[in-house]
Automatic annotation (TrEMBL):
Annotated GO MF terms: heme binding; iron ion binding; monooxygenase activity; oxidoreductase activity, acting on paired donors, with incorporation or reduction of molecular oxygen
Keyword Iron carried by entry: yes
Stated name of the protein: Cytochrome P450
Recorded family membership: Belongs to the cytochrome P450 family.
Binding residues for heme: C485
Keyword Iron part of the UniProt annotation: yes
Record-linked SUPFAM superfamilies: Cytochrome P450
Cofactor: heme
Amino acid sequence: MNSESLLTRVGLSSAWNKSASVLTFVSDALLNQLENVSSDKKRLTLITGTVVTTSFVLWKMMMPRRSKSLKIEMVSGGLPYFGHYFELLRDHQAFLKRCKKEKGPVFTIRINNEDLTIVTGPLIREMLHKSRYFNFEEGIQSIIPIERALQVSYDHKYKGEKLSRREKNPVSYPIKHNFKEEQLGVFSERLQLAVNKALNAKLDIQPGEKKTLPAWETLALTVSQISCLCFCGSKIGCNQEFVLAMANFTKNVIRIGIALTVLPNWIANFVIKRYLSVESQIDLIMDLVVPELEKIRSGKISHDQEPTYISMALNLPKAGGQLRTPQEAAFAFKSVVLASIHTTTQTASYALHELACRPGLVADLRAEIEKLDKITPETVGEIRLLDSLLREVLRYDISIFGMNHKVMEDVVLSTGQVIPRGQLVHGAMFDAHTSPETMPETAHISLTPLDQFDAYRFLNAKDNNMASSSIDSEFMTFGLFAHACPGRFFAVHEIKYLLAILIMRYNITTKSGERAQDFLMRGMTRFPPTESLIFEGRKQYVTI
Ligand code: HEM
């Protein structure tokens, strides 16, 4: 056997087969040589040499991943305990540039005594692609234990269903299959009703009258109103106690999660049960949603009359073909609340803060909106400048590190480096979305550098491949591949309509006229500014 055929065999077989191939090859060669060797001394030298060579080759083959050079290395510098925190805080772009120059596209940094593995550029895409190895939900859970927060609040009353691996997920499946762009028409009227209803309740001001409000609260309530009407239907969606409870649900769950991470268990359990529990909010979901679903199940109400997420979850059969109970479907709704209301509110808040310091952009958008015969989610959805603004907000207003995924099995990256099982990996999201090397197409369509905000940037995109809901490796805020956000079409649809109405109803400014400062947690996670915005009534808007 020649060495080429040996290599072919080695490449195709498992480690054991590789070893067997090497041994076969070596023993064949040894037997051939031994026949031609005369003295005992020569025989001994040949046998010893062969054994040493074979052992070395086998060791190389069996242990390639343990090689020292394949380790992910810690970036130099840093202070005791704080590690690289202050350098990251001072100038995250310069810090990441240094890290990449020193250690390549993947490295470890230390922030407040915690070691974080950071992947950059194309490796983020690679991480999102390998969903078997990198798990988003587990990543979130290891930062804020949301699942445990819900268990502590509600396990004593109801535990929900255990999902098997074969199961169609009752949270994501109905959204993936019923919330595509072309299916959103069924929500149009409820979306319009929700926006006008929430703004009339919270921001009913006369032309010229001013009101100063934190953007987040106003938007969270409006987004919650939209979600409750569209996901649960008109009857439940008009219950204001429910709308308010869902607006604050994620924030409250996060508070519990934080208590669980920072306090010893027995104190956390006491504090949660006494002060923080979301039991009453989940009670409200069960009390309102279960009777509605029972009516659907018994045929008293038709799902076709008004499609809702809850009825879609109810009608999704389980893996074994059984029907889901109204309790099980109602319980799944809380996960949709967690996935949708906070994320949408966050993006809408950023967009409003970008608009509040750009009167020229607002004037351009108003001119586009005024051209429409009627302001509906569908007509507004066609305004390219609004879509460009939204994509830019989603591209630019993101965390320094995000897309935290937990490694489920030891994984070898294309760089040859190994990330061990259990490790939490962060994507350098802002860096990936602002580096010309990782954003070649986006970098070419505007003269504005990628590390500056430009609401007009995507107006020059040739076709629809740069729409705010179309994901690609230059736009990863909604995730990529198998687990990309299934609610992104709905999110974009509702945010654009909401912004259009806000633009038409109010003049919105910050106190200083400048973009208010974002809130940065641990130097890496960004949140929209907490500074209030000034809303001035512009003209009456006819509600439907
Ligand atoms: C601007 C708003 C939103 C952003 C930025 C966003 C972003 C994301 C991201 C990054 C993921 C995780 C992808 C992964 O697993 O790697 C995700 C998952 C998900 N999102 Fe969204 N989302 C938004 C709005 C919504 C809305 C409005 C809905 C519901 C209509 C929704 C429903 C979901 C669901 C059900 C999942 C889980 C998908 C799965 O595990 O397969 N999201 N979203």
